[in-house]
Amino acid sequence: MITFISPAKGFNNTKIKAKSKPQMLDYSKEIMKNLKKLSSEDISTLMKVNDEIAILNKERFDSFNFEHDSLPAIYAYNGLQYKNINIDDFDNKDIDFITKHLRILSGLYGYLRPMDCISPYRLEMMTKLSLHGYKNLYEFWSDSIFKCFLKDLNKDNTLLNLSSDEYSKTIIKHIKTYNKKIDNTKQIKFVTCTFKVEKSGKLKTESTASKIARGKMLCFITKNRINKFTKLKDFTEDNFKFRQDLSTEKDNFIEYIFVKTK
């Protein structure tokens, strides 16, 4: 089972050394060529950010050098999901497991392993950056990220989605196309964990609660060496409980619903 998550907008400094280079640097360098052409005003408009953030990222893009990448991705990203992975509590065996079983999707780097080296940047996958005739990053990356997953999948052919819709969209249509072409027993199982909060008898998906739960789920998977998606039902962190009655499965697309009652 390969789990994938979204990146984060914030970054940490760390003394931990990266162990590998991103696999899709040729794509990343083409994107960066276009980003370096943007003014801070262009960045503000394109990314819908304030002037301070636009100036910061203009400076990042102008000085960006892939040869100087140094931060391992799993340690570098700083956001609610990443904080709740508790990576600083991982031992060497935990790092080995997560390196094998986790991937991070990125608008700039495409497909990252946890210990791949990256530099601070801001580029969400939904950004409508035009390059080489493509109107956005989804078109630019096309099925290239999905093909990386195909190389890494093990015999059970299971992908676990702990990302936002913005990033899972990058591969879903390609999985559907792929599954239609092959025997049912060899099709990819696409499992999504959805976390809902019950308030006044109604179920709602809250962004903050979901990000925290995704991080805790990844920690749970790593610490317990989980490699079968059915074992995810045992997750009870932060008072979430699996709800079989709400969960669904159709054409190898499975959604596990976890509910937290306040």
TrEMBL record:
<dbReference type="Pfam" id="PF03883">
    <property type="entry name" value="H2O2_YaaD"/>
</dbReference>
<dbReference type="InterPro" id="IPR005583">
    <property type="entry name" value="YaaA"/>
</dbReference>
<protein>
    <recommendedName>
        <fullName>UPF0246 protein O0R46_07445</fullName>
    </recommendedName>
</protein>
<comment type="similarity">
    <text>Belongs to the UPF0246 family.</text>
</comment>
